């Protein structure tokens, strides 16, 4: 029975996962190495609770009970020593994830389950960093977590059926729909999303159209809710590039990152989070300017 969930990494994804866990009734601890990230996460999570009340998604009582279930810490070992499930949302870097999984395997109780929010990496490989591969699974949430309805659940080679069932139950309590798939690089969603986003960059590089025109064509012609550049800027162009590099390495040529995307990331244009991506966010919302 899961009562206490620990989310590791309080960035874009971790803060959203912690929010839906707390709303779902779990005692929730959010852990990060950066105190600044934790402070920002707390401010943002409180703002999401407040908006939830304004929009009648939560009552005031539910919001204050949810906020009371949340705690913030930089002491990973102490927190995981008393938790039932860990959801990892640190950067998409295997060395960082390896370090985290080795540490939590050492300090978490034996009954504790581990999930990774990796977009592309192998839950089988991540599980191999622990002595409990049957209890390790990928739970792939989407950005922004409190709005997106899906959690893609990915079984590693040794993931036990009990863990699959439990991950589905936890996602349901968080108010999410699920799909459960077998591990293959990129799963379902990251593989398609990376390909579409990369193709859009090739079109921009070739001068096919402006970012606005390409985004509009995809939204209105193909009925996508967001254009590929709007989505890339939201996901983070650095994250998108990392995903593509991994898919290129594992699945081959068709995932080779577009040179224009590489150039943007070299320039520090990571998207919304850095104030500039394909679009310029320095005036707050998308300013209408672009720098293609
Ligand atoms: P992010 O860079 O916004 O946040 C990562 C956080 O992890 C930072 O706050 C950082 O301080 C913290 N961190 C780094 N090392 C740590 C450590 N050793 N211990 C504790 N905290 C540590 O990253 P993100 O975009 O939230 O991505 C996190 C994961 O989620 C990645 O695996 C990514 O592929 C995946 N993901 C991202 C998205 C997206 O749209 N951004 C969507 C789905 C999945």
In total, how many beta strands?
A: 8
> What oligomeric state best describes the polypeptide chains here?
single chain
Structural domain tally? 2
CATH topology of the largest domain: Rossmann fold
Specify the CATH class of the largest domain.
Alpha Beta
Rg estimate, integer Å: 19 Å
List segments where confidence is low: pLDDT < 50 over at least 5 consecutive residues: 288-292
Strand order of the largest sheet: 3-2-1-4-5-6-7-8
Q: How is the biggest beta sheet arranged?
A: 8 strands, mixed
Give me the number of helical elements.
Answer: 12
- What is the succession of H and E elements? EHEHHEHEHEHEEHEHHHHH
Helix content: 40-55%
| Class from secondary-structure proportions | alpha/beta
CATH homologous superfamily of the largest domain - what is it?
NAD(P)-binding Rossmann-like Domain
- Named at the architecture level, the CATH assignment of the largest domain is 3-Layer(aba) Sandwich
Give a description of the structure.
- It is built from twelve helices and eight strands.
- It has 292 residues and is α/β, with parallel strands linked by helices.
- The chain folds into two domains: 4-182, NAD(P)-binding Rossmann-like Domain (Rossmann fold), CATH 3.40.50; 190-274, N-(1-d-carboxylethyl)-l-norvaline Dehydrogenase, domain 2.
- Strands 3-2-1-4-5-6-7-8 form an eight-stranded mixed β-sheet, with helices on both faces.
- α1 (12-23) crosses α2 (35-54) and α8 packs across α10.
- The longest helix is centred in the N-terminal third of the chain and has 20 residues, at 35-54.
- It starts with a strand and ends in a 26-residue tail after the last helix.
- It binds nicotinamide-adenine-dinucleotide.
- Nicotinamide-adenine-dinucleotide is lined by residues 8-14, 31-34, 37, 89-92, 96, 100, 117-119, 140-143, 235-236, 239.
- Nicotinamide-adenine-dinucleotide binds next to α1 and α5.
